[in-house]
Specification:
By secondary structure, the protein is of the alpha/beta class. It has a single domain, classed as Rossmann fold (3-Layer(aba) Sandwich). About 45% of the residues lie in helices and about 15% in strands. It has a 7-stranded parallel sheet, sandwiched between helices. It is globular. The N and C termini lie far apart (about 55 Å).
């Protein structure tokens, strides 16, 4: 085994990625499969997950994908997803809580129900699914190689920026805080809990702003590093946190945002 494999391989590990058929979820799932893991991909659209699993299995990678339907927007949906995972595996080394939703509307007309809907998927489901899968995470965890949980936060959870997505930005700040809370609670169980706080990436959720090459360039021009995120940016972060390299990291909110989280318009003395 090479030095890089020792640090970043996830060979033989079993993972679940919610919302894994598109966007950042698919990027993380692809990385795990290419590095040797068996990855369950679940989202509301089961046929999409089955199709994407087939595409990922066609990469000729050392890992493999399994796709099926899983809806985290209700307690019953989470229970069904947990039952499906338990049927497929007795242990879970990696859980990526990636499924998410958003709602955009002007302040004056932002609907009441958009808070419960967004918090239900983005926060409640992260807590409830993780809690329900604890027996499988416990079974996979060891002193030398902890089980890993990665939650999907956002640069909007670190910065006071709404862009008309009031419930989304508040929900992602909640994800970051929940991540740190669970990190300290799960440390003695040998389970690490970290979060990604991505800036703009191409996904179904951001398609309105990054769908075309021209749009992506325009959004990227606002990022200090000068571009939007790419699949390898998620892949590297995923393998770092899930491989041996990340086994001593917990409670981290990892900014994958090209410098947006440190961007500011402040000027003191220099013009």
């Amino acid at each position: 085994m090479s030095y890089l494999d020792e640090l970043f391989s996830v060979a033989g590990k079993t993972a679940l990625v919610t919302g894994g058929a598109t966007g950042i979820g698919r990027m993380a799932a692809t990385a795990l499969i290419r590095a040797g893991a068996t990855v369950m991909i679940a989202s509301r659209k089961g046929e999409d997950c089955i199709r994407v699993a087939g595409e990922l299995n066609g990469l000729g990678a050392s890992g493999r994908a399994e796709g099926f339907a899983g809806d985290v927007s209700s307690e019953a949906g989470i229970a069904a997803l947990v039952a499906e995972v338990k049927m497929r595996s007795e242990r879970l080394h990696i859980l990526v809580n990636n499924a998410g939703t958003s709602w955009g509307a002007p302040l004056e007309s932002f609907p009441y129900h958009a808070w419960a809907k967004v918090f239900g998927v983005n926060v409640t489901a992260v807590f409830h699914l993780t809690r329900e899968l604890l027996p499988l995470l416990d079974a996979a965890a060891s002193d030398a190689d902890p089980a890993r949980v990665i939650n999907l936060g956002s640069v909007m959870g670190t910065q006071p920026l709404a862009d008309d997505a009031y419930s989304y930005t508040a929900s992602k700040a909640a994800v970051h805080h929940l991540t740190r809370t669970l990190a300290i609670e799960f440390a003695a169980r040998h389970i690490t809990v970290n979060a990604f706080a991505p800036g703009p990436f191409q996904s179904r959720m951001t398609a309105f702003a990054t769908g075309s090459e021209e749009q992506a360039k325009h959004v990227g021009s606002h990022v200090p590093i000068g571009r939007i995120g790419a699949p390898d940016d998620i892949a590297g972060a995923t393998l770092y946190l899930c491989g041996r390299a990340g086994s001593y990291v917990t409670g981290a909110i990892l900014p994958i945002d090209g410098g947006q989280s440190v961007q500011h318009g402040l000027k003191l003395f220099k013009e």
